[in-house]
Write a structure and sequence with these properties.
There is one protein chain. The protein has 13 helices and five strands. With about 300 residues, it is an alpha/beta fold. The chain has three domains: about 130 residues, 3-Layer(aba) Sandwich (Trna Endonuclease, Chain: A, domain 1); about 55 residues, no CATH class; about 90 residues, no CATH class. Strands 1-2-3-4-5 form a five-stranded mixed beta sheet. Helix 6 runs antiparallel to helix 7. The radius of gyration is 22 Å and the shape is globular.
């Protein structure tokens, strides 16, 4: 399961989620923003950095590492990259803390003795998702994190519960993001199933996600202007293509002419599939690979 991208999306949607895992949260937690950074010479990749608001002076920076595989030098790397980043940005921050998220204690580095000073302090927080308790008793966004660790036979029921709960507790915009996250988690968990089979398992459809609600609504508007069924279908396809092109540009940058022309030839079904796939795109190479796979 590509958990890094799932947790990245979780933190993007709800930056305060990290602080729900801590017993003591900063008083200005709602003002923090989430980012992912690279520290060079040597190059380190930090899973997540939570930055305090710039207009409040020097604040505490929080580093987050999501670790689902055993790494016997994890703490060496985490403390090295955190210290280096803090060193390079010392004027911006008054202190730093680190949060390491594990599915369970069994994944933690075996030899922790050299790091006892950090690990026994209130500067480093270790979170074990399987010890947080029943999903039904957890905050909704924390429950989404725990869903990544739930066993396959229990995952569908837990996922449906989170979807039902989000429809009641969350505004429409946040609910759409949760639907997409739950579906993505389940697709990664059930790799043998197609996305449509997972959606059928959960009792949802692509049309319930934010992307397709926008497409549907814009298509309806176009259809009303046309005043006939053919116009509605044609208008929906035109608006879908326009929406997908805008989202692709925001996601991977300006499209080369050849790529744009190829995208404009896609039918409505292919556009809907692309609209779902682009949620996982990080650069132009992902889009080109998707188009090549389509042709193959």
């Amino acid at each position: 399961m590509r958990r890094d991208s799932i947790f990245y999306k979780l933190f993007q949607q709800s930056p305060t989620l990290l602080f729900e895992l801590l017993t003591e949260r900063p008083i200005n937690a709602e003002s923090y923003r989430f980012d992912s950074v690279a520290v060079k010479e040597p190059k380190f990749e930090i899973d997540g950095v939570f930055l305090p608001p710039e207009n409040e002076g020097a604040g505490v920076v929080y580093f987050c590492e999501v670790q689902f595989q055993k790494d016997e030098q994890l703490y060496e790397r985490v403390f090295a990259e955190s210290s280096l980043y803090f060193y390079r940005n010392r004027a911006r921050f008054s202190d730093w803390q680190a949060v390491i998220i594990y599915p369970s204690r069994s994944i933690e580095q075996s030899d922790i003795h050299p790091h006892r000073g950090f690990l026994n302090s209130n500067q480093v927080h270790r979170v074990y998702l399987d010890e947080l308790g029943d999903i039904r008793q957890l905050p909704l966004w924390v429950g989404l994190m725990v869903l990544t660790t739930v066993e396959e036979e229990l995952a569908p029921q837990a996922a449906k519960y989170l979807l039902e709960r989000s429809s009641v507790e969350q505004p429409e915009t946040a609910n759409g993001a949760i639907i997409e996250l739950v579906t993505t988690i389940m697709v990664y968990k059930f790799e043998q199933l197609s996305r449509k089979e997972v959606e059928s398992m959960l009792g949802i459809t692509l049309k319930e996600t934010r992307v397709y609600r926008e497409i549907k609504e814009e298509g309806r508007e176009e259809g009303r202007e046309e005043g006939r069924e053919e116009g509605r279908e044609e208008g929906r396809e035109v608006e879908a293509r326009s929406l997908i092109l805008r989202q692709l540009t925001r996601r991977v940058g300006e499209l080369p002419q050849q790529v744009r022309e190829r995208t404009e030839t896609l039918c409505l079904e292919q556009l809907e599939n692309l609209g779902e796939a682009l949620l996982d795109f990080t650069d132009m190479a992902d889009l080109q690979a998707w188009l090549e796979a389509l042709e193959g």
